[in-house]
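User: For a benchmark we're assembling, each entry needs the component sequences followed by a predicted structure for the full assembly. Here are entry 17's components. Please fill in the structure.
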Amino acid sequence: MQHCRVLLGEDPRLSQLSFVARELEKIPRGKLGLRTLKIALLSSFSIEFINMPLTVLCFLNGMEAEIYLPGFGQFQQEIRNPSSGLYAFAPEVVVLSVEGTDWLPEIYSGYLDRLTVGFDNVVSRFSEEFLSLVQAFRAGSKAILLVNNFVPPVWRQLGILDGQVGTGQAQLVHQVNESLSSVCRKNPGVMMVDYAGLVHRFGALRWYDERMGHYAKMPIAADMLPQLAGEYLKYFRGLTGQTKKCLVLDLDNTLWGGVLGEDGPTGIQLGSVYPGSAYLTFQSEILNLHKRGVLLAIASKNNLADVEEVFAKHTSMLLKREHFASVQIHWGQKSESLKQIARQLNIGLENIVFVDDQPAECAEVLRALPMVTTITLPKQPELFVRSLLEDGLFDGLTFSEEDRQRGGLYRQREEAELLREHSGSLEDFYRSLEMEVMFAPMDKTSLARSAQLTQKTNQFNLTTIRFSEFDLAERAKDPDWLLTTVNVRDRFGDNGVVGFMMARFASSILDIETFLLSCRVIGRNVETAMLAYLCQQGSNHSIRLLQGRVVPTAKNVPSQDLFSRHAFQKADEKESGETSWILDLSKASIAWPAWIKVVADVPVTSNK
Amino acid sequence: MEQQVKQVIADILGVDPDSVDVSTAKDSTASWDSLNHINLVVALEQEFQVSFDVTEIESMLSFSDILETLERKLQR
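Assistant: Structure for entry 17:
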């Protein structure tokens, strides 16, 4: 995969993509050991040209794409016919890529003819039609539906008057996009793809190829197709739990121009004048990522005292010491720094993006830690922002209150770690945290966060089954399912929702399917409280047996011994390593940890 | 140039570059369908930094047609 990335480089030619796609075809499905992603592409044009870049990009992101393509222009029939090939294919993701001119000719090609009649009902009719399409889709599929919005016509039929008449084409397309986005927001699992924004980013004249539009019914220029595929990949990565969590930055010629050790804290380039201004812009975008919930860290070969002086005294620094959850400044290898950062923040190395201006440093990291995503910055600092943001590596499918506060939460964690070093026994440490754990049924306010936890949690996760918001909303309607969120507060602050459980009542058994805990609170016995809560729920419902299973992965080692640590009996072990466990509630139960205060939605008898 | 064209044809159509010769044509090559025809044209455009018009695209139906069209294009 790594070699493939090197071969293709930044801007791969079609022949290179084809070569890789052909090589991939030779490998039987499933033999790559990658996660299969079933994608259906519905379109008003010959979207099959995107197959090749999409297949290759999926591969580079650890996925094996299985693509379903009905003929172009079939999207309405495919969705509205319950026995269509689309539903038989059972996709996980459906992409609906329709050009405005094909769906809404009355505001594109037929605009001037319609102008005298007016456009009053065009938008409302579209809105109704789209909603009914979404409803028809939901009746037949639980897949995520990605819908392109529309691009205003490149050549406005009224020319410069388009902006003057009040119902110009640009305005109408804007209104249609608004109504499309509104339907998407109201229907879980339906997401708008900002296709207009994507085309805008590259420019419509570069995006479209009129020649191919006429000759091959493929209006998008061939060299833009990898960009379209790349935009969809951002969603696929989010869907498969590959959203990056942490950005590790170099300092010299990355956060500022120049070398601190040579130029001194006052000699570095950072401020209102180029090139300092470009570094400042880069810092401000990094700060935005921090505000979105991305953890920041530093891996730099420098003298710690010099760096501290910059943080303390340089007035232009937008990034402050407190924005960084982990700092590694020494002369050792960067790969070692990254390992240290991952350990400190309790995240996987595959969740890290490493940014450095030195190709040699990036190469060292890639060789030692191939699972880390590295970005080698270009020579000109004004291009840094593009390098950092273009692949949407930090884009997730949800944005929760926890994301907004994450930076601060990890600072609390750093303090808690310090406290652990200063307190004697582990039990003393637990007590000193003054933990409060709150259990609540998942509801509308915690839906997004719960789905996000199932998508992103890898370490303390017994079965690692991923769920969309839509899946969870559906399941919450079933009275047999118990969906519980876990909120942890300690003396350093509120950690928010950090745990999630799903268990099903089946006659006298309570069957635990999902049991996960954010890495932020691993190692504090919160899991014991969670099991105690389930025991409590069990006895409230006259349950005899608590049952669960562990599906081992390379990453969930910290959770694999959960049941054995809590006196469950092993009931079964499969060849795959998957184990099943039971706890007979008539003979045993799990006690609440004495040092955790429990606040629950149901009466709880604590043994304290 | 011949070798470069052979390589592009090989990459797009999934055939051995050494097997590409004057007998290689759209009608006689299974993987040279209309989808791959477009892919082939675009790959050649990228490789040789040229742009074909629709008439040229329609006429490039064999290895020798491609060579001829390309030569004409690159001379201008």
